[in-house]
Amino acid sequence: MTVNYNELTQQILDLDQQVRFAGVANTKGELVAGGQKDGIKEILTGDDVKMSIHYALQKRDLYTNLAYKIGHEKSSITEFDIVTLISIPINPQELFLISTEPRANYLKIIDSVYSKLDSLNNSGE
């Protein structure tokens, strides 16, 4: 199955005006799809983006060590003063990353990502 992550990330960017960024990163810390919403002032650039991806992957790996006790991570939400970061494991090799304005309805956004991933997985694409 091949998933068009660029299309998926664009759907999440279009979902809510408070979504600033949507992307998919691999285990090497590379952004393989997505990006910043047009017209939004970037908060992180260059190496700061890479560092943010690295920290999200590192956090996922830490919780993977506890999965035998608490189950697998479904999502992670970290609220900062000026942005909220959301990560959703897609599979062991890929992580869906989203940033929003503070206090966005992140549960709606997460549910939408789950729904879109489920429909892609069930469609046999």
Summarize the structure.
With 125 residues, the chain is α+β, with helices and mostly antiparallel strands.
Describe the protein's architecture and organization:
The structure is a single chain. The model has no long low-confidence stretch (mean pLDDT 89). The relative contact order is 0.20. With 125 residues, the chain is an alpha+beta fold. It has four helices and five strands, in the order αββααβββα. The chain has one domain: Dynein light chain 2a, cytoplasmic (Beta-Lactamase, 2-Layer Sandwich).
Topology:
Elements: H1 5-15, E1 19-26, E2 31-36, H2 47-64, H3 67-70, E3 76-79, E4 84-91, E5 94-100, H4 106-123
Antiparallel strand pairs: 1-2, 1-5, 3-4, 4-5
For the biggest β-sheet, the strand order reads 2-1-5-4-3
Would you identify the CATH architecture?
2-Layer Sandwich
Give the end-to-end Cα distance, rounded to a whole number of Å.
5 Å
The total beta strand count reads 5
Structure classification? alpha+beta
Radius of gyration: 14 Å
Structural domains: how many: 1
Return residue spans where pLDDT drops below 50 for at least 5 consecutive residues: none
